[in-house]
Amino acid sequence: MNVKGIHHLSAMTGDVKVNYEFYTETLGMRLVKKTVNQDDTTAYHLFYGDERGNPGTELTFFDFPGIGPAKAGVSSISGTSLRVASDEALRFWEKRFEKLGVKHEAISEFAGRNVIFFEDPEGQQLALVSDENNTGVAAGTAWEQSPVPVAFAIIGLGPVRLTVRKPESTIAVLGLLGFRETSRVPALVEGQEDIVILQVGEGGSGAEVQIEPRNDIPVAQQGKGGVHHVAFRVEDEEEIMAWLDILNQFRLPNSGFVERYYFLSLYFREPNGILFELATDGPGFATDEPFETLGESLALPPFLESRRQAIEANLKPLDTSRK
């Protein structure tokens, strides 16, 4: 009943056009689904990933025009990393970021891997992490039509950093999901406790959560450039329902079973207030679109299709067709 690794991260943007251009043109990820936030259909929900948005490769964004910037703090998903195949790929990205004016740091070592820390146009804290010596959960498959060469392409989600005031509470819930401590690394901020590294399932970058204890900052505020929630991989509906029973046994408030059409979900908050999701590996994003044209038009699950005209009328036009 252990989860298998990271499924996706969902973040927030205040400018969907800038967001789309950065993640597809600068980072070379594929937009695999242009749909809407099913809880607020006035907002886009964009899914970027590998060639078909395989589980473990998806970085998604809710579009909330006019939203204020996120403010860093505890009770937050404070760092998102993206996997590349090698140290050579990091050197490629360092030069690309310099050429394109992307705010970034030099290549460095963190938690046993070479990384580049960088920001997107709205200040989201990101990192590229090398798979040079990585083992465990397999990466995705690079999209051959990306503007980035296949050898250097982003191929999945890497470790996720959670910043919390009471690390033992979050660690306990992750332990319930099957995560185990594998190491500790020195704090990023002087005077704070070590960062606790946890992995689940086969382990490796695609199955790692890093718990950063902080007692010197306030509670984070969500906004553009911030992360809304992290989702972890489970196999199918049977496992979702089994996890629902477990969450109820441990009296963890939750959403109950949620049908998202492209996958099935179950949401709950851990004691430090961070929103977790369990999501199934399927059915996937090619359920209602051909592989060749994923993300080029607005896709709606069947239970929203009858409202298409009204939904489209409330969305700002976003051209995602590929020339």
UniProtKB/TrEMBL annotation:
InterPro entries: Extradiol_RC_dioxygenase, Glyas_Bleomycin-R_OHBP_Dase, Glyas_Fos-R_dOase_dom, VOC_core
Pfam family, one: Glyoxalase
Domain VOC positions: 5-131, 156-281
Entry keyword Oxidoreductase: yes
Gene3D superfamilies: 2,3-Dihydroxybiphenyl 1,2-Dioxygenase, domain 1
Keyword entries, A-Z: Dioxygenase, Oxidoreductase
Keyword Oxidoreductase annotated: yes
Annotated PANTHER family: RING-CLEAVING DIOXYGENASE MHQA-RELATED (PTHR36110:SF4), RING-CLEAVING DIOXYGENASE MHQE-RELATED (PTHR36110)
Name under which the protein is recorded: Ring-cleaving dioxygenase
Organism encoding this protein: Cohnella endophytica
Source species taxonomy: Bacteria, Bacillati, Bacillota, Bacilli, Bacillales
